[in-house]
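Appendix B, example 12.
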Amino acid sequence: MRILTAAQLDGYQRRKDKSISIRFLTQEKTSGEVMEIDQLMDTFGILYFRGEEQLNEDEIKELDEVELDLYDQPKSQSQRLRNVMYKVWMMNQVGTFKEFYKAETEKIINHYKNKLPHE
C-alpha cells in the first residue's frame, strides 16, 4: 500500500533523539483514502517530497522498487542482541551487566572463531 498525493509541507519539529517530525497538508480526502492512510499508521516507509514538478512513471517505479529491509527494524541487530542479553542478565543479575556482556560476547566470538579453518 502506498500514499501518492499532492501535499504542502506544513512544518517540522526537531525531537530530542535527533529525529524530525514532519507535517504535511493534503487536499480533501475521501473516507476510503483516509482509511488507507490510517492503515499505514506506525509502518516504516520512504518519504519523497518534491516541489512543483510532477512525478513521472520512471520515478514512481524507482520509488516502488526501493528496498526497505535494511530499515524495517528501528534497532540494529547489535542493539537488539544487547537488549536481549540485558533482559537475560536482569533475570539473574550475577555481577554487573558489563561483566556479563563481555563474558557472553566472548563466548559468541569464540564459537565463530572455532568454525574458522585452523592453520
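The beta strands are 7-14, 20-26. The CA atoms of residues 81 and 108 lie 11 Å apart.
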